[in-house]
Specification:
alpha/beta, Rossmann fold, Dihydrodipicolinate Reductase, domain 2, 6 helices, 25% strand
Length: 255
């Protein structure tokens, strides 16, 4: 059986990557490719809408798609927890649609985020540095926000991390009490480092994206899950069994 897909943001880097990947993959067919000049109604007729737009556009795309009974895979960064919670309430009684929001399609990235959340219970000093190409329009990145939120959940009974002098602008933006620092540097694709410090030692958990091809396995996993999704799920860790148990990195967002 073939699942029909509409790609919104099809002319961007990720849009072209997803479009080419689907064209090479059995079981899917792209029936609409929307760009900034397209009407949202052009996605109607597809079963899955893949949103690869911008943070200021994404919510409207998702609302339109779910209002018309499409299931949605969101690869747009910048969704806040408030936005996720609002969408979850909106879809709470809907069995005909659902949304998967993926901050990062890389398997290595989701593993690094999970490792950081696991380690967060053992260290009180934690900070995140994320780096992307200058064309990335949002900061902190969705991956860094997701990592900080999972660190916060893992430390729910321990309290906030130790982060002195956060009133100074150079100390980054606090997300779930974790200082997050964003770099936008030419020549990069994506990198994230989580620094954890304790008595007499430090631990650094790093993930470096070397090629956009690293996203392909996660995209296919997310597309498969989007075929039957109901409600709202955030992150590949919510659709892939990482083998750590349900409480390893906190409950995540699964509505």
């Amino acid at each position: 059986m073939t699942t029909t897909v509409a790609i919104i943001g099809a002319t961007g880097k990720m849009g072209r990557l997803v479009s080419d990947l689907i064209d090479r993959t059995d079981g899917y067919e792209v029936v609409a490719r929307l760009d900034s000049h397209s009407e949202l109604g052009e996605m109607l007729g597809a079963e899955i809408a893949v949103d690869l737009t911008r943070p200021d556009v994404s919510r409207g795309v998702v609302d339109f798609a779910t209002d018309h009974g499409l299931r949605v895979l969101v690869g747009t960064s910048g969704w806040s927890q408030d936005g996720v919670d609002s969408l979850s309430r909106r879809l709470a009684d809907r069995a005909d649609t659902g949304v998967i929001i993926i901050p990062n399609f890389s398997i290595g990235s989701v593993l690094a985020t999970t490792f950081a959340a696991l380690a967060a219970r053992f260290y009180d000093s934690i900070e995140i540095v994320e780096a992307h190409q200058p064309s990335k329009v949002d900061s902190p990145s969705g991956t860094a926000v997701r990592t900080a939120e999972l660190i916060g959940r893992a430390r729910a009974e321990l309290g906030p991390v130790s982060a002195p002098h956060t009133d100074q602008r150079a100390r980054g933006q606090q997300v779930s009490s974790v200082p997050v620092h964003s770099l936008r540097v030419s020549g990069l694709i994506a990198r994230q480092d989580v620094f954890l410090g304790g008595t007499g030692e430090t631990l650094t958990i790093s993930h470096n994206t070397l090629s956009p091809s690293s996203y392909e396995a996660g995209i296919l996993l997310a597309l498969e899950a989007a075929r039957t999704i109901t409600g709202v799920k955030v992150g590949l860790d919510q659709i892939v069994d990482l083998g750590f148990g349900s409480d390893a990195a906190g409950s995540g967002v699964s509505k």
